[in-house]
Amino acid sequence: MSSASIVVHPPSSTGGRRVSVHWRGRDETLGAAFSDHDLVVFLEGAGVQDPDSILDDDRWIEWRGGRARQWSAV
User: Which of 40, 71, 72, 73 falls between 20 and 30 A from 13, CA-CA?
Assistant: First the structure.
């Protein structure tokens, strides 16, 4: 189990990955990301400072069901 508060869920069959954040004791879906840019935009909207710098940091982001930065289904 990760302590990361941001989860990028497995790629869907049509591409893209759901992104959620655990905040104030609950999970909130930010949307479906189809690229690093989409993820950065979601994180900026959630108030993350310098989101580009945390994309590969597993203390912040847990990538489930696929490699980090893999946006399409295998």
Answer: 40
Q: Position of tokens 């840019």? A: 37
**pTM here?**
0.88
Residue with tokens 């893999």: 70
pLDDT (tens digit per residue) in 1-43: 355 699 999 999 988 999 999 888 899 999 999 999 999 999 9
Q: Residue 20 phi/psi, 5° resolution?
A: -130, 160
Contact of 7 with 62, CB cutoff 8 Å: yes
Angle at 4 between CA 46 and CA 47, to 5 degrees: 15
How far apart CA 25 and CA 28 sit, in angstroms, is 10
